[in-house]
């Protein structure tokens, strides 16, 4: 009987120890960055943000990674920190959306269009916990082609940020 108990403990221990905790899984990650893109949910697998003291700029970035092909779709929003007021609809900011192949090869890049369809709302910059949250809708266009614009709607984020003085 002791032998069976010992085997049961070993099996249970093995099962528990071999479970993988994937922190990039959006369902268990400590951030949220998502939007609707082409009627599909664009859910980031990683995000990062910097509050740049030297340039007085807040930069918020996120990416949807495809590790099978070593490629990602990355989005960055940059805004002048002085223009941020909680819950104010901001129209003056820059954003880009790029498809990156092989870690550093940009296959295509779209830039935001300044219009009523493109806005950013910063709900909170939590200085104590170093988190920024808000919502967005952004219309992107590729200025080098006559391709269809990309519109990201219902965007929300709640991500950690770091202070920096460099670029």
UniProtKB/TrEMBL annotation:
PROSITE patterns: PROKAR_LIPOPROTEIN (PS51257). It comes from the Bacteria. InterPro entries: DUF6252. Pfam families: DUF6252. This is Uncharacterized protein.
């Amino acid at each position: 009987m002791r032998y069976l108990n010992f085997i049961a403990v070993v099996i249970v221990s093995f099962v528990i120890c071999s479970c993988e905790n994937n922190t990039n899984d959006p369902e268990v990650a400590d951030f949220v960055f998502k939007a609707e893109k082409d009627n599909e949910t664009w859910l980031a697998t990683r995000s990062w943000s910097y509050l740049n003291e030297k340039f007085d700029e807040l930069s918020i970035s996120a990416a949807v990674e495809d590790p099978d092909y070593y490629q990602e779709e990355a989005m960055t929003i940059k805004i002048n920190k002085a223009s941020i007021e909680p819950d104010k609809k901001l129209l003056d900011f820059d954003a880009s959306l790029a498809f990156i192949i092989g870690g550093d090869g940009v296959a295509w890049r779209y830039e935001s269009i300044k219009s009523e369809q493109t806005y950013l709302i910063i709900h909170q910059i939590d200085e104590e916990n170093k988190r920024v949250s808000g919502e967005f809708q952004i219309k992107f266009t590729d200025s080098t082609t006559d391709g269809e614009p990309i519109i990201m709607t219902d965007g929300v984020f709640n991500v950690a940020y770091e202070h920096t003085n460099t670029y």
